[in-house]
Structures are given as C-alpha cells and as structure tokens.
Design brief:
Among the domains are: 7-107, no CATH class; 200-353, no CATH class. Helices cover 61% and strands 3% of the residues. The chain is built from 17 helices and 3 strands.
C-alpha cells in the first residue's frame, strides 16, 4: 500500500480537493439577498457544477482504488499518472465554466453595479420574450461587464470547453456602456441573437435575403454578402422592433468609427460595414414612419463618410450593396415565416409603443423631472430616454442619474418577482 507521502497519492488528494470546490460557487461568491440572482438561475447552475464534480471525482476514485495499492509497480504508476493527467485537463475545462460564472456573479457584489446590472437583466429578459413557444423556454439572462469595444452574447446551450451547455444567456457589455445608458440598445441586439436562434430563423433569414435579391437581379457577390450579413442584420432589426428609432439613433453613436473601420468589408465577417448598418436602420425608420429626424441623421452620416475617399473596390461593393437597402427592409417587414406560424417578424412586437410621436409626448416630461413611463414595456422606456437625450434638455450627468434610478427600479421589480 502506498504511503500518504507518495507523489501519486498526493496528486489524487489534490485533485479530489480541487474537484470538490467546483460545487461551491454559491458559497464562494456569497451574494447578499439584495443583489443575488434569481433562485431559478441558481437551480440551473448548481446541479450542473455538481454533476461535473461528481463525474470527475468518480474517475479519480476508480483509478485510485484500482492502482494505488500497486502504485510501486512501474506499469501501474504510469497508468495512474496518465489518468490523473487526463482528469487535470478535464478539470481545467470544467473550471472555465466555473470561472466564467464566478466573474459574472462577483460583479453583483458591488451595491451600485449589481443593482444596475439587475435592471439590465430585466431589459434583456423582456427583449427575448415574445409570443412564440420556443421563447417561453429561454432561461432568464444575466448581463455583466467585460473588456472589449462592443457587446456580445454567449447563447443558452452553447457548449463550454468541457462540453457542458451554457445554462442561460450571458450578455456582455463594456462598462463604458453603463455610463452611456441610452445606448443599452446593444442589449436588445444581443437578445435578438438568442431569440432568432431559438426560433430557428438564423438559417432562414439568409435564404430569404438571397431569394429576394435574386428576384431583383442582384449580383452573386451581393447576394453572398447579404446572406452572410443576415446573422447581424436580423438582431439589428429585432432591436429596432423593440426600441424603434432609438436603435437607429444609437447606431449613430456606436458606429461613428474611423472611415477605414466604418466602410470595411470582409467576405468572412458576418458584420456588415457599420456604414451600411446605420443606413439600414435609417431606412427601417422611413419604411415604418415615413419622413422624420432619421432623414437628417442619414444626411449627416453620408457627409461624414464620403465614399469617394474609400478604396475603389470597397467603394464599388458598398455602393452596390446600398442600392438594395430598401429591399432588405421589405424582406424583414413583410416576409411571413413558417417558423413564426405564418407571421412576419414585426407581428411579434408592439411597434405602436415606440411610435416617435408617442415617445416624444412622454419625453416632454423630463424637463419637469417627471417621466411617466407606466404601462410602457421596458424596451420602449429605454427609447424614451433616447428622445430625452436628443432634446438636449438634460446634460449627460443628469440623464445618467435619471437612467440609473430607472434601472434600479427595474432591478427591484425583478427581485420582487423572483
């Protein structure tokens, strides 16, 4: 029998100790009740971590029970060493899941940040929840801050390195976005990625774009580009249907990049050039509501990015793609999809709630310090703040305080419901 100081026995004990810690995430982050996530979310996380710990612990125990009594035999030692090495690699992959959620959840310990993120959770949840059977199954999302220029999502069911499925949508936003809360339309876009995937529209939209472009006689390269770009255009349109012109207005801020970035086209990149994404959103406003402030936004945008300054091939492709913007809008507004039971995408939304005239009436109250948002969906409330910002009645600091209080109230509602 190997002594307790045998290196392989010590490795076994070390592995067991570390594996055991996988199932103690909740105790480690120790979130106070006021900033804790919903019990439903813990009910998804804890069993998955416990299952990973049990699976790895069983492998270690079986190998140790079989080999440790004969560990001084070279062949047995080599077999145990190999098994423990494999478990080490699998444990590191399991900790990728653990570490991700530890990073996400420890942000909730900050009283201010945690409470604001709870409000963002409500915004993300509402953005995903439409009248469709597949969306009723989406788990409540978590929003957190991370590095990077833009927002992103790790969708529900996407596998972690150890193969375990992500149990709930994780939406990452740069912290700077929380100091520019009127542009939290980024969350709505990321929610659109989750919703469209759940409704099996991710592969359908490219086909719809291709078919419409083919009927219009578009060149093959333009059909290919729009089919590729559908992956991002779909979520942009989802955010538009939730926030209306606020989505288009936000893109003016978010995509105001140097010309080389704004006009860049890459045939392997699902992101359309920011230049075209903004123009698409302006076109959607026009298709929905006719003339409006987006006409001035578009004129300003075109003056900021003169195509004559672009490289010849980029200029050619962008100009050609631009001619089909109204057609892409028509596909999104009017195509009836079998995955939606014969409905169009806008049929899933209340676009009347984000009609510019309605939002302007509500936003007018900001000057008195009273915004009557009752009865409006949270995403439409976000759109009101965009109108308030555009009116110029509040400076950035006052608008930020107003929106912080709004998010705190949304987060408090979430906890009351939970």
């Amino acid at each position: 029998m190997a002594g307790r100081d045998h290196p392989l026995r010590q490795r076994v004990e070390s592995l067991r100790f570390r594996i055991h810690s996988l199932s103690h995430l909740r105790g480690l982050v120790a979130l106070p009740p006021a900033c804790d996530v919903a019990e439903r979310q813990w009910s998804l996380l804890e069993p998955q971590l416990a299952a990973a710990a049990a699976r790895l612990a069983t492998r270690v125990r079986r190998a140790a029970d079989r080999v440790l009594p004969r560990v001084h035999h070279p062949g047995a030692a080599r077999r145990l060493n190999a098994v423990l090495g494999e478990v080490e690699l699998d444990l590191s992959r399991a900790f990728a899941f653990f570490d991700t959620y530890m990073d996400v959840l420890t942000q909730r310990r900050s009283p201010e940040l945690g409470a604001v993120l709870a409000g963002c959770d409500v915004l993300a949840r509402e953005a995903m929840m439409r009248a469709h059977p597949a969306l009723r199954l989406v788990e409540p999302p978590l929003v957190y801050c991370d590095r990077g220029f833009g927002a992103s999502i790790m969708r529900e069911s996407v596998p972690f390195p150890d193969g375990s499925p992500n149990p709930m949508p994780l939406i990452q936003i740069p912290y700077a976005r929380l100091k520019q809360k009127y542009n939290l339309t980024s969350i709505l876009h990321e929610a659109g990625h989750q919703a469209l995937a759940r409704m099996d529209l991710v592969a359908v939209l490219p086909r719809a774009f291709r078919a419409a472009l083919a009927r219009a006689g578009a060149p093959a390269e333009i059909r290919d580009l729009y089919a590729l770009w559908a992956f991002e255009i779909g979520p942009d349109f989802w955010a538009f249907c939730l926030a209306g012109a606020a989505e288009a207005n936000a893109l003016r801020d978010l995509f105001a990049l140097p010309p080389a970035h704004a006009l860049r086209i890459a045939f392997a990149d699902p992101h359309p050039p920011p230049y075209l994404r903004a123009l698409l959103a302006f076109a959607w406003c026009r298709q929905m509501w006719g003339r409006g402030p987006w006409d001035a936004w578009e004129a300003e945008w075109l003056s900021l990015y003169p195509l004559r300054a672009a490289p010849p091939e980029t200029r050619r492709l962008v100009m050609k793609a631009r001619t089909y913007l109204p057609l892409i809008g028509a596909v999104l507004f009017h195509t009836r999809f079998a995955a939606l039971g014969g409905r169009t995408l806008p049929d899933l939304f209340d676009l009347a709630a984000v009609a510019p005239s309605a939002l302007e009436r509500i936003a007018a109250g900001a000057g008195t310090g009273v915004l009557r948002l009752g009865g409006l969906p949270a995403c439409a409330q976000l759109a009101v703040f965009h109108v308030v910002r555009d009116s110029g009645g509040l400076d950035e600091a006052r608008l930020d305080r107003l929106m912080t209080n709004w998010l705190l109230e949304l987060g408090a509602q979430r906890h009351r419901v939970a």
